[in-house]
Structures are given as structure tokens and as C-alpha cells.
Predict the structure of GDPD5 protein.
Amino acid sequence: QWERLWFLILTSSFFLTLVWFYFWWEVHNDYNEINWFLYNRMGYWSDWSIPILVTTAAGFTYVTVLLILALCHIAVGQQMNLHWLHKTGLVTTLITTVVTMSSIAQLWDDEWEMVFISLQATAPFLHIGALAAVTALSWLIAGQFARTEKATSQMLMFTAYLAVVVALYLVPLTISSPCIMEKKALGPKPAIIGHRGAPMLAPENTLMSFQKAVEQKMYGVQADVVLSYDGVPFLMHDKTLRRTTNVEEVFPERAYEHSSMFNWTDLEKLNAGEWFLRNDPFWTAGSLSRSDYLEAANQSVCKLADMLEVIKDNTSLILNFQNLPSAHPYYSTYINVTLETILASGIRQQAVMWLPDTERQLVRHIAPGFQQTSGLKLDAERMREKGIVKLNLRYTKVTNEDVRDYTMANLSVNLYTVNEPWLYSILWCAGVQSVTSDSSHILRKVPFPTWLMPPDEYRLIWITSDLISFIIIVGVFIFQKWRFGSIRTYNPEQIMLSAAVRRSSRDVKIMKEKLIFSEINSGVETTDELSLCSENGY
């Protein structure tokens, strides 16, 4: 019973660490968001994603090795005999995994949506892998089935295995992926918008970053606008300047002040590039050329007007705005100041996607050519009433059906932040019009979705795989039954574990009696030898 309990714990730990490892592997798209999220919680920047991934991989590998060894023991009719060190390690791994999974679920439950989205890209291939694993497991199951003496145990074992196999055969009925489609139905490639410029190639929201985005011939860029205390619009994502500037060195007593409470003359004194080379948030700083490295190190806080001058000819623009503190002198007029700066730059109005809901009617009156964009998920009718023509949402907030409905209503959808080619491919197949990305230089080189499969071809692969698996499983059960049915010898350990080859109870009884008498005779012979040695004086 204890061995069964430990095997249950081992199996549970395997599947739990498998899910956790898959989760951390697939959220690679959001590693920078995870680090930024933890930065806001802890107050200092550190790359937590890679250590967590490495630790998770190590735990999963450890549990997998233990499970393989346990199955090998079972295959030859022996107990697992886990050492207490392994039991301690197993329980520690299980508890740590449960705690970290619960923490992520509470702190950032939205990220679990990523798992379900990733299955649209991986489920067809994971199904084939799981099918191969369960088919290979038939050798062990068939062997245990042939060795088990009790018909009830045989029936339970066979029924459980059959249920798993049948469920796995039918899993494709639940798989839904937009990339299971005819090639001719594939829509145009989604346009790519650089998130804060090109943040993998240069410090975010700096002039260099937007210059790199323009060089990459991006469809557009996204920027975060703040108004300085003296009314100069500049670009900054965080509420404070701590993460992306050297404010703690230049103005240490003001490091935690809101960035909008600084005059532009003070902001000009800050370096906005050294942090990028020091923290290396995307692990790309080492790949920069010597000239780009030096240029990045000397970046300063960027004015909105300077950025507009760089992108105004051929690039679209999405603007996010920070809410200003109530004590700010431009608290009630920052929209007007920003609007004046945009119109004065000469950028085409049709190239600007206006996101804030604040003063939307005023903006529509002053700049009727702006594309009114919403950051809230609304139904199509409501959006028409508000004059919205575009949606800007996180990729986890919309379904494939939502994209289809918005497209039919002649509404454009932009999703952020999309960094991985597989995610870009899924959204491409779903019909998304544009995405915002940190890795625009990578996505622009994706010529076609990572995979595209016609439904008829997928069904053929599914049915063929199931048939091959079924034939192999039946063959293995027949072979194992024949194999163990012809064995006449017995392993004493197998008999003690009730894992002996199935024979009539009379045969097993005779074998046990032979083993007992053999031990008794051996003991008697040993006693006689000792007595003889004593008599001879040895």
C-alpha cells in the first residue's frame, strides 16, 4: 500500500511538473512583462524568467527520471524501493510546484489564458506525442496484465488503460486551431507595430528605438506619452524614472516622484540608455554592433516632437497616455497640449490611432482624420455609436470568434504584445489585422504561418495515427500473453510481491513449499557444518 501511495505521488508530481514546465516554456512571449510585473512588486529589476524556467526544467527532469526508473522496476516485477532522499526530493518538488502555481494563479491569473492559446499551435503535435507514449506504455501494462493473478485486478487495469486510450483517440474532436484551414482561406499577413519603437534593438521609448523601427519598415509604432511639469510632452512608460533612467544618481531624493513632476530641463540631464545595456531585458545587448552599443549608452529622454519628426512620413502611430497627478499644472489640459504637438508635427491625421477615451469628442472635432481606437472590448454596435474604427487589446482578451465578428463589422483589431512567431502565426490564421510587438525585426521575417494544415489532411493523420496505435497495442497484448504464458520458472521476489507469472494456485503453492523446504535444508546443512567444525577444533 505504501508503494502504491508513493507511485501515485510520483505520477501526480510528473504530470504537475509537466504542466508547469509547459507553462513556463510557452509564456516566453511574455517574459519581459513578467519581469516588469515583479519589478513593480519588489521595487528592483531582475530577470526572474530564466532562473524560474531552469529550476522548473530541473525539477521536471528529476521527476521524469524517477518515474522511468519506477516503471522499469515494475516491468520486472519489483517494488520501486524509493530511497528516503528521493522521497524528500519528490515531496519538496511537489510542494514547491503547487505553491508557485497557486501564486501565479492569484497574482497573474490572466497569464494562464496563454496556455489555452498555445494549445491552438501545439495540440495537434502534443496529441501525436501522447499517443506514442501511451502506445509504448502498452508493453508494461500488457506485462502486468499477464502476470496478475486476480481477475478483478486484471479487469480494473485493462479498463483504466482502455479508458485512457479511447479518450486519447477522441481528443482531436476537441482540438480547435485557426491554422487547420485551407491555404486559400488564409488572410493577409498582420501589419506589425513596434512596441515603444524597437525595444530589442535599442532602449525603449528613445529616439534611437524609433529610428530602428523606421529602418525595419514597420507599419507603425506605439509610444507612451507623459507631460512634463512645464508642459513638454515626452515619452516614458513607467510612473517613475527609476527603471529606465539614472535618476537615482542625478536626483536621488526625487527617484520615487512621478515622472511628470520633473521640468524638461531636469529630464534632459538624465541618461535613458545605460539601463538597457546593464539589465539587458531581452538578452540582445550583446548582439549590438559597436556603434549601436555606444549610441544606446548615450540615449536621453525623448520628446514627443522629436519622435514625430522621425516617423511622420510613412509610419502609423498609437499613443498611450499616463494619467497625471492632480497637483500637476496641466492636469486638465494635457490632452490639448499633446494634440497641438501632434498636429504641429505635420504627421498625417489618418496615421494616428487615438486611444484615450478622455475628451474623445474634442479630439474628433479638432482632428477628424484620427483613427478613433478603443482599449476596451465592446460590442460592434456600441463601437459604431462611439465612432470607434479600431480595437487595441491584449491578445488574451479576444477569441477567434471575436476577431471574425469584428472583421465582419468592418472593425480593425490590433493585439499586443506579440513576440513569438508561433503566436504571430496563430493570430495570422485567425485573421487579425495588426499586432504590436517587441520583436518586430523577427516577425517581419516570418513569410508564412509556422504550420498550416487542411482539415481533410489533419483528419487523415488523426485516423491513421489512431489505427497504427490500436494495431500495435493489440499486438503487444497478444505477444505478452503468449510470452508470459510460456514461462515455467519463478522469481522468489516476484512471488513475494504477488507479481509472479499467472499460474494455477496449486502450482504457486507447490513452488512456495519448495522454496521454504529449500531454505530449511540450507539452514540444517549450515548447522551440521558448524558442528563439524567445532568438533575438529576450528
User: Anything to note?
Assistant: Residues 113-147 form the longest helix (35 residues). The chain has three domains: 2-182+454-485, 191-237+305-443, 504-535.
